[in-house]
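Hi all, posting the design record for the shared folder.

TITLE: backbone redesign
STEP: 1 of 1
STRUCTURE INPUT:
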């Protein structure tokens, strides 16, 4: 199946019409060999650099959220007003560098097993994903 057919299928499964602009968004999100993290604003800038036309922020926002809802993207909330999206939807951990605002994958082998001692009654744990926030240690710099 060609990339165009794959992108069209993803859009339709996400209840979106496969417009030229949405297909371009798919091309950026799903064609790279390597998964990546982005904010909506990051993705808008990437699209503007790759294309000679501008795609509205609303189109980018709606497309990303439709893909998230369908499970094609994962949202990682850093705080109440900052979210990143990840094209790697498997369960995995992250570092967040507060100096550079960069989200970095952290593999299972880099974290010992996590022991959850309590659960919420009537609920089942689906996954455990750790977000580790890091920043420059100014006290140790001379």
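Okay, here is what came back for every position:
SEQUENCE:
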């Amino acid at each position: 199946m060609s990339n165009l057919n794959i992108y069209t299928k993803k859009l339709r499964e996400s209840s979106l019409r496969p417009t030229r602009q949405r297909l371009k968004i798919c091309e950026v999100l799903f064609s790279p060999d390597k998964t990546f993290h982005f904010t909506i604003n990051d993705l808008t800038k990437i699209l503007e650099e790759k294309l000679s036309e501008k795609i509205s922020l609303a189109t980018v926002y709606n497309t990303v959220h439709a893909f998230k809802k369908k499970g094609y993207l994962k949202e990682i909330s850093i705080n109440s007003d900052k979210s990143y999206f990840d094209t790697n939807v498997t369960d995995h951990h992250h570092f967040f560098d507060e100096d550079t605002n960069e989200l970095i994958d952290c593999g299972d082998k880099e974290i010992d097993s996590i022991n959850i001692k309590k659960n919420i009654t009537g609920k089942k744990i689906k996954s455990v994903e750790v977000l580790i926030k890091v920043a420059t240690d100014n006290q140790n710099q001379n």
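COMMENT: The first strand starts at residue 37 and ends at 38.
Let me know if anyone wants the other runs.
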